[in-house]
Design brief:
The protein is about 25% helix and about 15% strand. The protein is of the alpha+beta class. A hairpin with a 5-residue loop joins β20 and β21. The longest helix is centred in the C-terminal third of the chain and has 27 residues.
């Protein structure tokens, strides 16, 4: 997003978008053949309870009995072990072109590297496979010394780089192989002794010292205990102690919403008047068009507004930066849920960056083992309750009464709280991170690994991309995570593939060229991926010489597909991050793409969506392979021509990566943006070989997931490399007609390898009340989460439908929801011709309109270049809530007054307020800053005081602004402006804001850069805000059956007709 391409009819900078596989576009990745049950520990302790919450949905491509975890072969400590190639059963993904023959020569010599047993064998014991010493480190390597992580010769299985800790591989073949499975997943963990330390011996350890506790609270709990496990009363959960215990008699009788401190009224009519907003519409007879006062329409000028009452109600919940529900009032029945009309679900950003002082505490249970429910595998959290004098704890998700391991035992005080509460962050905080004990690991956690695949064809060389990439990587070498274990490697390609021997003993890298594209192989596999600290000087020499090596290259071809396969071969041993720099449409070998063209004629037909999904299944297959081997792919695309982002982006979509698109890249213009974004990609904290699962309480379950990932089983998201900039959305549904609990709990568990080499489990827990009142659902709605989920659903829909259909579906949902809400109250309040909506949803219509106009959804053929549309879609599918809202409704601020004011350099408070996104906000005498989180646009009014322009731009201020770049000049005004930009960039570092300058009236740039993004304006065939509100209102209010109108370019005339009908 955010590159300017002069001469290109682009519009909004873009964000990439997910691509689609053939069948169900984005919603969830293909299921990669592993069966959750396959991960099940051998002798399950509670066979019946291993997968209590896993959905019963059929899992595609799985084999029930298949794929038993075996030995250390699998490079996955995550619990999600990449199934052997041959077992890749996803029907949508054809099996890789591999034979099951035993490894010919070395592990690397042929494409699917890992040589695995034949498809039909569920992986026998490891033993036969291992003629080698699987995890033997090179002799002499100390435990923490930098290890080359080089696979041993002829080890077909996964050689582990790191030193062999003290794991007994032999004996652990059967059992331990289960261990790495996400302990957070039901059944994923062997129910072996070490896992439930203290569980078995609990009884014996019930120390005699435990005093009989006679707290009233406890007694109360005791009363609940034997009963049905419906007890999720919020009180019981508040063990943590932040909330004063309720009066003893109260808990069970309380309405869920009446939790102490809970604000919102429960469904009483009284509260309504304050709770909803209303707009007078059409009150001026005969002038429908102006019936709404534009000024009073709600606008999110303060940015994202999160519902506060939820956090107040449940202070022990994790922060909303990690988890947001679309409504924090969970409907008690399916019928209620269906009347809500908006998506019911959550947006999860498991690694969101926390401000200083709010970091997630890391907890090491050491020998105690991680405390989890023995039935549903929920992690101990602030909502579990302790009973039986501290000897038992009740799971808040499934209500099972668990024993407290001896080492974890603590007495309860008079109020029933553990006396050690203060020392137990996991019982007092909604977000914690557990260190996974080493005995859980099949192999030492993988080292951070970066492999760069760089296009060096003529267009890449001429754009300057290679130089920027090489210099940026070099400048980041000290900051790559994981020192001293970090691994690195490079390959380049045009019509052939070039590998680089980086062996530490060399003084400079050796290049090897592979020209056989049909049968790609990797030469010298041992020296192509090297330990960065050991080979540092060779790596530096390589990066220094890379730009000049290809500066005169005239090769126009791209053997991208074969190069991709080679990368997989190289990386499959360890996993890691693959960064692709792609400039030319792949033209040779497997995976070549053709100019599908952006055919004007298919728009508006049933074939339109096909342009937005990959044509060749190769890319999706490759993505599945990458994910299987714990490789996350980030795609950087730079072409000035059509480059089929729809296909290329698939690689990122299904491997949990991202797409960065810089159309018509020129280093002079876009270099800074690429530099920053690549640097962030390389240096931000990354969670490696991760899997994520979200558990929820009885009666509800997540049914679909939306974002960039691969779905491993029905509810297990595979994320080979995930970071703080990625969010995942999911839809929730009720499994039972009626929920009997008063509270529903959610728990996000992300199992991953930290760059430091520690295996961790990050756990976020939250509770939400169950309500019987539809109005309450609306009042507790979270517009940010709703818009995030709606946008993903809409973008996915464009992969199987026309753009217009996707927009209509979105509009219909908004209308239905507001209509339902209106019906709730219109009678009592004689609302007549007024449009009403809950306070919580007051920005929903505007965000909906903005979504209509966003790059992935807007207009038709001519409104966004196809590649940009796809790229924007890929990006929007990953954005966290706040980032997405900023993109949809960017900030517009007037700056000239601030710059003229004699205020301190740091006085940012006096910067003007955000303005409505409309041309009416722009004064020809002013200077404005538009910021959508991906770029800045500085707009110079036609009659802006000349000295301001002079101060900011110098003598160039009279030139065409597309050729002028902003830099700091020696005057106060310039310094102030640059300081503002710097501050804004720092506050939102996930993407670099490229700064564009535009003068009022400078067309077409002004239109492309700014005017099309003023979402409140009527533009081309799209509605302005007022028209949009009127249209929604008409449709909500129409008493006829004519409910839904087509929103299209032809809408205006239709509107008049409808308006007439309404005025009857
Ligand atoms: Zn449980």
């Amino acid at each position: 997003m955010g590159t300017e391409n002069p001469g290109r009819p682009t519009s909004r900078p873009v964000a990439p978008f997910p691509v689609a596989q053939t069948m169900s576009p984005f919603s969830s990745g293909p299921v990669v053949g592993s069966d959750p049950s396959g991960f099940r520990p051998a002798p399950p302790l509670n066979p019946q309870s291993t997968m209590p919450f896993s959905s019963s949905r059929p899992v595609v491509g799985m084999e029930a009995s298949g794929f038993r975890p075996t030995g250390p072969l699998v490079p996955d400590t995550s619990g999600f072990r990449p199934p052997p190639l041959t077992r890749f059963n996803d029907p949508s993904v054809p099996p890789p072109p591999t034979s099951n023959a035993p490894p010919p020569v070395g592990p690397f010599s042929r494409f699917p590297t890992p040589q695995l047993p034949s498809t039909t064998q569920p992986f026998p014991q490891r033993a036969p496979l291992v003629g080698q010493t699987p995890f033997q480190p090179p002799p002499g390597q100390g435990l923490s010394s930098p290890v080359p992580l080089r696979p041993q010769q002829q080890i077909p299985s996964v050689p582990m780089g790191s030193p062999p800790q003290s794991v007994n591989y032999t004996s652990s073949n059967l059992n331990v192989s289960q261990l790495p499975l996400d302990p957070s997943f039901p059944g994923s963990r062997p129910n072996l002794q070490p896992f439930l330390p203290g569980y078995a011996r609990k009884q014996s350890s019930s120390d005699p010292q435990v005093p009989p506790v006679q707290s009233p609270f406890l007694a109360n709990q005791g009363g609940i205990a034997p009963g049905p496990p419906t007890t999720s009363s919020p009180f019981v959960g508040h063990q943590g102690g932040y909330v004063p215990p309720p009066p003893v008699a109260a808990p069970l009788g309380l309405q869920s919403m009446q939790h102490p401190g809970s604000g919102p009224p429960t469904g009483s009519i009284q509260g309504l008047v304050e709770d909803f907003n209303s707009l007078s519409i059409g009150s001026i007879p005969g002038s429908i068009e102006t019936g709404v006062d534009l000024k009073v329409l709600p606008r999110p000028l303060d940015g994202d507004v999160e519902p506060k009452s939820f956090a107040q109600m449940y202070p022990l919940n994790c922060n909303s930066r990690y988890l947001r529900l679309t409504t924090s009032a969970i409907p008690s029945s399916q019928s209620l849920a269906s009347r809500w009309h908006l998506p019911l679900g959550a947006v999860v950003c498991p690694l969101a960056e926390a401000p200083d002082g709010e970091e997630v505490p890391v907890i090491n249970f050491a020998s105690t083992g991680i405390i989890r429910c023995r039935r549903c595998r929920t992690y101990v959290n602030p909502y579990v309750t302790f009973t039986d004098a501290g000897r038992k704890w009740r799971c808040n998700i499934c209500s099972l009464l668990n024993d407290v391991p001896g080492e974890y035992f603590a007495h309860l005080d008079a109020t029933g709280r553990r006396v050690d509460l203060e020392q137990r962050p996991e019982l007092t905080q909604g977000s914690v991170e557990f260190v996974a004990p080493t005995e859980y690991m099949v192999r030492p956690p993988m080292p951070p690994l970066f492999f760069f695949l760089i296009d060096v064809s003529i267009s890449a060389a001429r754009s300057g991309m290679i130089e920027v990439v090489a210099k940026t990587i070099r400048s980041c070498l000290d900051e790559l995570p994981g020192f001293p274990r970090t691994q690195i490697g490079f390959a380049t390609f045009d019509s052939t593939i070039h590998f680089y021997n980086m062996k530490s003993s060399l003084t400079q890298p050796q290049m090897m060229v592979v020209s056989d594209l049909d049968d790609v192989f990797v030469p010298l596999p041992d020296d192509l991926l090297v330990n960065l600290s050991e080979s540092r000087s060779v790596v530096e020499t390589f990066l220094d010489s890379l730009p000049s090596m290809f500066q005169d290259n005239v090769n126009v071809e791209s053997a991208f597909g074969p190069a991709l396969k080679a990368s997989l071969m190289l990386m499959s041993q360890l996993g890691g991050k693959l960064l692709i720099f792609q400039n030319t449409l792949p033209s040779l070998g497997v995976g070549r793409l053709k100019l599908r063209g952006d055919d004007l004629r298919v728009y508006g037909t049933d074939k339109e969506h096909a342009l937005r999904i990959p044509e060749d299944p190769f890319y999706k297959q490759m993505a599945a392979e990458f994910t299987k081997f714990q490789i996350g792919v980030n795609v950087y695309a730079f072409s000035d021509k059509y480059t089929d982002i729809a296909s290329l982006g698939t690689l990122a979509k299904y491997s949990g990566g991202q797409v960065n698109y810089y159309p018509s890249f020129q280093s002079a213009t876009h270099g800074e943006k690429l530099r920053h974004e690549l640097a962030r990609d390389l240096t931000r904290e990354t969670a490696w070989e991760a899997v994520m699962r979200v558990r929820c309480g009885k009666g509800v379950r997540f049914t679909s997931y939306h974002g960039n990932f691969m779905l491993r089983s029905t509810d297990l998201l595979a994320l080979p490399a995930v970071d703080c900039d990625k969010a995942f959305a999911m839809q929730l549904s009720l499994e039972e007609t009626l929920l009997t609990t008063q509270t529903v709990y959610f728990q996000v568990a992300l199992l991953y390898t930290a760059s430091c080499g520690e295996r961790r489990i990050r756990v976020h827990t939250a509770a939400a009340p169950v309500v019987q009142d539809l109005g309450e659902m609306y009042r507790q709605a979270d517009t940010g989460a709703i818009v995030t989920l709606l946008s993903r659903l809409a973008i996915e829909k464009t992969l199987s439908h026309k753009l217009e259909d996707a927009r209509n579906a979105l509009q219909l949902r908004i209308i239905k929801a507001l209509k339902e809400y209106r019906n709730l109250y219109s009678v009592q309040h004689r609302l007549g011709g007024r449009m009403i909506f809950p306070e919580s949803l007051k920005f929903l219509p505007l965000y909906g309109l903005a979504l209509f106009k966003s790059t992935p959804l807007r207009g038709g053929y001519s409104d966004a270049a196809l590649d940009e549309r796809c790229a924007a879609g890929y990006t929007m599918m990953t954005l966290p809530v706040k980032k997405l809202l900023k993109l949809l409704y960017p900030s517009l601020i007037r700056l000239d007054e601030y710059l003229l004011k004699a205020s301190a350099l740091d006085d940012h408070k006096s910067i003007g307020k955000r303005l409505p996104l409309s041309a009416e906000s722009l004064d020809a005498r002013g200077l404005y800053l538009f910021d959508d989180g991906f770029r800045f646009i500085i707009w110079f009014g036609r009659v802006l005081a000349p000295d301001i322009a002079m101060n900011l731009l110098g003598p160039e201020c009279a030139a065409e602004l597309s050729k002028v770049s902003l830099s700091e000049r020696d005057n106060e005004m310039s310094r102030k402006l640059m300081k503002i930009l710097k501050k804004l960039r720092e506050s939102d570092p996930s993407y670099y804001h490229l700064c564009h300058l535009v003068r009022q009236g400078e067309q077409p740039r002004e239109g492309v850069l700014l005017l099309t993004n003023l979402v409140e304006d009527h533009m081309g065939g799209t509605n302005g805000y007022v028209e949009w509100i009127l249209q929604i209102h008409r449709q909500i209010d129409l008493k006829t059956a004519l409910l839904i109108l087509q929103l299209s370019a032809g809408y205006r005339s239709l509107f008049v007709v409808i308006a007439g009908a309404y005025e009857e």
